[in-house]
Amino acid sequence: QVKEKGKGHFRFYRSDMNEAFPNYILMESHLRKAIDMNEFVMHYQPQVHLKTGKIKTFEALLRWQNRKFGNVPPGQFIPLAEETGLIIPIGEWVIHSVCQQLANWREKGHQDIRIAVNISPKQFLQSNLPEVIQQALIENQLPASSLEIEITEGAMEDTRAALSMLQRLKELGVIISVDDFGTGYSSLNYLKSFPIDILKIDQSFVREIQINEKDAAITKTIIHLAHNLGMEVIAEGVEEKDQVQFLVSVECQKAQGYYFSRPVTAEEIEQKVLYA
Ligand code: C2E
Ligand code: MG
Ligand code: MG
Ligand code: MG
């Protein structure tokens, strides 16, 4: 089928174009049913302590497997969930699922594991978020320190709301980290006054760390900044050995990325990490 698009311009429409341009209205109706249909599963990516090689923390990353759309990447369905408000029930499902996994691993003797959960900006501004988290911790008999909350700089734009939410979360005792640090609304002011435990260096700085002097300088500076403020620091998106060597040389505490492991199922974490 050929449609005319202005004078002398033609665009071709093929039936398989849905794959490149997903039908978001149809996708939304599937996303709405995804929890009930059991279509979500959490994957976990190890975070490696560089000095010791120990792995005690994992980032939880949501996966959606749908009949019609197949494996939809979070980069596609998370923004859709944010726009439609579906992120609220989905986010609660994630918190409960992660807390159940923590309880399961603790029962198996791994008491010192921590899991980091991504919280989207809309979810972060829900006033009952601390209660939702507390409920999940209590149900699964977990210490709050076994749960880490990852928020992006974008969630902190409304500084007063963000500060009061962070204080409530901190009172609960959960660990707080800033995801994709350095890519958003970066104000040094919030680092001074917000109760932040960890900075996650965005993968865009890590990618060319060995060849781009500016990326190397920014990475080093974030590491010093974190240490001088008494925060932990972790590098994201580490894919190569050279990057690990650089990060070790500048005393980055932890790293996460395909070099060590892709995000994998809980079963694979057990086989490859916990019982390796
Ligand atoms: P993020 O939190 O910054 O997560 C890191 C992303 O980088 C993940 O993509 C991860 O699979 C990927 N990654 C890890 N190591 C490497 C590496 O070495 N190289 C490269 N190129 N990529 C690496 P993923 O799983 O597709 O998630 C994308 C984003 O979707 C996440 O970015 C996060 O913002 C969001 N997301 C994922 N799961 C959840 C969730 O449960 N809730 C919410 N609200 N957002 C989520
Ligand atoms: Mg994250
Ligand atoms: Mg990130
Ligand atoms: Mg991200």
Write a short abstract of this structure:
It comes from Heyndrickxia oleronia. This protein is 42% helix and 21% strand. With 276 residues, the protein is of the alpha/beta class.
Give your account of this protein's structure.
The chain is α/β, with parallel strands linked by helices. It is built from eleven helices and eleven strands. The strands form two sheets. It has an eight-stranded mixed beta barrel with strand order 3-4-6-7-8-9-10-11, surrounded by four helices. The longest helix is centred in the middle third of the chain and has 21 residues, at 87-107. The protein binds ligand C2E and magnesium ion (MG) (3 copies). Ligand C2E binds at residues 45, 61-62, 73-75, 78, 91, 94, 118-120, 179-180, 203, 236-239, 257-258, 263. This is Diguanylate cyclase/phosphodiesterase with PAS/PAC sensor(S). It comes from Heyndrickxia oleronia. Residues 24-276 form the EAL domain.
Q: Which spans have pLDDT < 50 for at least 5 consecutive residues?
A: 1-17
Share in β-strands: 15-25%
State the end-to-end distance: 56 Å
Got a strand count? 11
In which range does the helix fraction lie?
40-55%
Order of helices and strands: EEHEEEHHEHHEHEHEHHEHEH
* Ligand identities: ligand C2E, magnesium ion
Number of helices: 11
- Please tell me the overall pLDDT: 92
